[in-house]
Design goal:
Radius of gyration: 17 Å
Oligomer: single chain
Low-confidence stretches: none
Strand order of the largest sheet: 4-3-2-1-5
Largest sheet: 5 strands, antiparallel
Structural class: alpha+beta
Helix content: 25-40%
Length: 149
Amino acid sequence: MTNDIKTTAEAVEAAALPHLHEVHSDPNATPVNVPEDVAKQPVEKKSAAQWAYERLILYIENFEKQLDEEHEVAMGFAGGDAGVLRIEGMGYFDPDIVTFYGSDSNGIKTQLVQHVSQLSVILRALPKQNASATAPSRIGFRLAEDLKK
């Protein structure tokens, strides 16, 4: 507990900003950080789609930070038979749709359009699609940069 004194406006603003808490068994695990650009807009001013999109980007970016140079991020779909999607792009359509662009395990172009109430994904590490490429594709970092615009 601190002895900081806050105005009512500061308390209301702090209550509307996103909070994140994680605990990992690995003490060296990289925690997800909520960037100032994401936190500055109060949650109640964001659509469900925008808010889900922003948080997914943070999780994807953080997951990629933990990958070696031989792996890229992909998504498995919980509760479905859709398989795995190598993430190549992501977007949202207000008020409640999130979409993922990529390719499946056979290299077939794929797009998932999902209502935020049905959102449930598993981030997976797959070997680089282009094994001869010097660096893996890192979509999470590009998506995170776009949040700053």
